[in-house]
Each structure stands twice: as C-alpha cells, then as structure tokens.
Specification:
This protein has seven helices and eleven strands. It is α+β, with helices and mostly antiparallel strands and 268 residues long. It has two domains: 123 residues, N-terminal domain of MutM-like DNA repair proteins, CATH 3.20.190.10; 120 residues, Helicase, Ruva Protein, domain 3, CATH 1.10.8. The strands form three sheets. A five-stranded mixed sheet has the order 2-9-5-4-3. Helix 4 packs across helix 7 and helix 6 packs across helix 7. The two termini are 32 Å apart.
C-alpha cells in the first residue's frame, strides 16, 4: 500500500502543482531514503532542473526532469505532499525539494521504507517490471499464454511485479473474486476463457479504483473511497455481495487473502 490506483491518483494530483517549476534545493532528512546516487551528487545534480512531467510506472512515481528522472517508491507508508506557501517541517519528513514559486515537495514516510532514485535512464530502476495491466501490452491472449508457462498459485503470481506491474494485495483479491478464481489455483490450470475473465476483472477493478481515487484503509493514504466498495478484501466474516456466503480469510504467501468459497471454488 499504496498500489497502482493510489499512486496514479497521487501523480495526477501532483501534476498541476509541480510541472514547470524549478528545483532550487534538495534536503535529505533521512539519508537511507536515497537509493542512488550519493547524497552529495544528488543535491548537486538535481539543483536547477525543471520538472517536466509526472507519471506512474507500476507502483513507482516517475518525475521527468530537465536532464534526469526522479523515481520514487512509496512502499508501505510513504506519501508525497505539494505544499504551496510556508512549509513547516514535520517529524516524519524524509526528503524535501524546495521549488520555485514558493512550492515545497515533501516525502513523508513514517516507516522509512520508501526509496528515491535520481537516474539518467529510468530502466535502471524499472527495467525488470512486467507489463502495465492497463496498457496495450497486457491482453487476454498475453495473460493466458504466460499463465500457462508457469505452475504457480494465482495470488503470488499476480503479486509478482516482474509478471504484471502495479497490482497489490487489495486489487488481486478483488480481481480474483470478480473473475471467480480461487487464489490458490495453479496458473497453468486456468482455461483460455478464465484468463479472459481475469484480464477483464483486473482492468475493471483497477479502473474503478482509479475512478474512486484509490482506497483509504489506514492512516497512510488519504482521499479515496474505493474501500467502501470492496467485494472481498478486508471483509472476512462478512457476506459475499454476489451470493451471500461468508467470506473466508486465509494466508497465501504470507499475505492476508480474502475470497468467497462459493464463488471461487478450488478445483482439484
């Protein structure tokens, strides 16, 4: 958390506040937040660059500068805030960019897991990611073919960012429920028709998540309301919205997993 819809929402919200502004100064309050390069080189190289574009790749925020790319992964508790006017430092601020027009970009991260890179080529950080689930490379045919090539349980495979980029725990559970597939089903047992159902479900769930500005389920991410429309995630012990069966919760790959035992039958 945040996952693809939350990161996409953050990128869209930051764009009008930051694009076109120059970076006057960088301050690292927690040096381990910076993954690459060294702190001295980072501060020297980023100063004076202009923010040209803000986009998303998987769960990464990609800020295109005049010369370099600033790439940020929020991990468990990170958040980015664009502050117009006076900036007052807060306890968990890890990384600060002072911009033109009295604007400050703040990376707030209580758990200190978030990371920042400044690179010439974004593939240095993003090169091993799988296709974007809302992109043209992600098709029903591609999904079926690549599910057949593996013999993994569906839930861990869909969470693998080298397989498909950007889907996390929430949206995998929601997608599998919509597609009526059990999280423990082996990927090579998925039929062509089931793969198409899963492809449609992944896109539908992510698009709905983006439309609702993501999900706000704890103190980390704020502003979305997709949590009010969950089908199964976080609803263990409650009734399935499709059939009324009690939703079950199990652990799959060390991740809490929610599913309906009637809608998502594990065929053996």
């Amino acid at each position: 958390m945040p996952e693809l819809p939350e990161v996409e929402t953050i990128a869209r919200n930051l764009r009008p506040a930051l694009v076109g502004k120059a970076i006057l100064e960088a301050d690292l309050c927690w040096k381990r937040t910076l993954a690459k390069p060294s702190a001295a080189k980072f501060k020297r190289d980023i100063r004076g660059q202009e923010i040209r574009e803000i986009s998303r790749r998987a769960k990464f925020l990609v800020i295109q500068l005049s010369t370099d790319f600033l790439i940020i992964h929020l991990r468990m508790s990170g958040d980015l805030l664009a502050i117009i006017g006076g900036y007052a430092p807060a306890k968990h601020d890890r990384f600060i960019l002072k911009l033109s027009e009295d604007t400050t970009l703040v990376f707030h991260d209580p758990r200190k897991f978030g990371r920042v890179w400044l690179v010439k080529n974004p593939d240095e950080v993003l090169g091993n990611l799988g296709p974007e689930p809302l992109g043209s490379d992600f098709s029903a045919g591609w999904l079926y073919e690549n599910l057949q090539r593996r013999k993994r349980q569906l839930k861990p495979l869909l969470l693998d960012q080298a397989f498909i980029a950007g889907i996390g725990n929430i949206y995998v559970d929601e997608s599998l429920h919509m597609a009526k597939l059990h999280p423990l089903m082996r990927s090579n047992r998925v039929s062509e028709a089931q793969a198409e159902d899963l492809w449609r479900a992944v896109q539908a769930v992510l698009e709905e998540g983006i439309r609702r500005n993501g999900a706000s389920i704890d103190w980390v991410y704020r502003g979305g309301d997709f949590q009010n429309h969950f089908r199964v995630y976080g609803r263990g012990g409650k009734t399935c919205p499709v059939c009324g069966t009690i939703i079950d919760r199990i652990t799959v790959g060390q991740r809490g997993t929610h599913f309906c035992p009637a809608c998502q039958v594990l065929e053996r």
